[in-house]
Here is the input.
Amino acid sequence: MNLFKYILITFTALFAVTTQSDVTQRFYLKVEAKDSFQRTLIANTGAAIEGVDSDYVTVIANREELMLIRKLNFKTTLLETQYSLFNFPIKDDPYHNYHEVLSNLEQIALSNPHLVRLESIGKSVEGLDLWMLRITEDVESNIDTRASALFLGGHHAREHLSVEVPLQLANWLVDQYAQGNLRVKQLLSQREVHIIPMVNPDGLEYDIKTGSYQLWRKNRAPNANGTVGVDLNRNYSYQWGTGGASSNPSSETFKGPHPFSEPETTAIKNYIEKHSLIKILLSFHTFSELILYPWGHTDQPINDNTDYQTHVKMAQHMAKWNKYKATSASDLYIASGDLTDWSYGTHKIISFTFELDPKAGNFWGGASSGFYPGPSLIDPVFKKNLEPSLFLIEYADNPQRFLSVHE
Ligand code: 0X9
Ligand code: ZN
Here is the structure.
């Protein structure tokens, strides 16, 4: 490596460390304080008092609060320099954690009571609600009456962009409806859109909770051998465990002890089985820029030629908008137990997996940069996938009709 590159990398790394730690670093400390007057002074710095004893308190503070406490002449003892952050690194702050997704969904639902219904469809292993947003005009009287499309994100913990895209889709639809966008008004008067942006909240929270990414993929189920996590996209029952899925709990692609062993996949199964008007489904993942259709467990094409052509033609059509490569899931690699093999195989729902941007991790960030491409991708990736999403909503009444419209 030449000197210039070395200096550049060192400088960039230092800059990243200082800017990030200044804002997000937390200190766990003991502060001598005898009475409530002194404790109030400490609390007024903004620091969180965690424990109170007769002559001291324990406190979690950021750097600024720590400085203020010291300025007030309190005697401080540092217990731990870095406390868990429970959030994205500051550079990725625009990404939504579980609570931010929930408050966004709640805000959408509260401000659009005639258009939106927010429901929990079940709970994760660690007891977080799995949130579903349902959007249709005059939702009170028309829920469960219109042809439906289902969008899902966040099966895999580290694929944060796959949460942002369906979340943005929900925001865009309700905003445009409110602004009188005729196309959206027309769509939502004839369709119901179902959006579950975060299928795996436990995994996602685990991935970000130390302030540096864990590169986590699975859910957070405790396994029999002491390891953690089932790959939710190997846990659906159709041809479960027939290839490209592991029976080793330590593996990244552990299929679980049995099909639908996980509450997250079971919640989606139950929801889909209760909502037979869902005729089209899109599961967002990252990354590679692909549009995938079943099968994933075998190289064979779908038996039913009409359904096969529907998948292929729709995928190719959508690829014109997002410039992704359209191909069968097994063409990526054979893997069994994914959502789309089950939703098509068991319920004949026309089903797609999008592997969103980027195309590949870049050299400087290592392979993991594909999963953590930064916030600048959120908007453009949402935009290039908007037309494909609207197209799927439009054809949710009878996806196969695209073949006659198209030819
Ligand atoms: O392996 C997966 O579950 C998906 N890729 S990811 O990198 N997001 O993990 C691809 C699923 C496509 N299905 C099959 N190849 N069966
Ligand atoms: Zn994935």
User: Anything to note?
Assistant: The pocket of zinc ion (ligand 2) is lined by residues 155-156, 159, 233, 285 (CB under 6 Å).
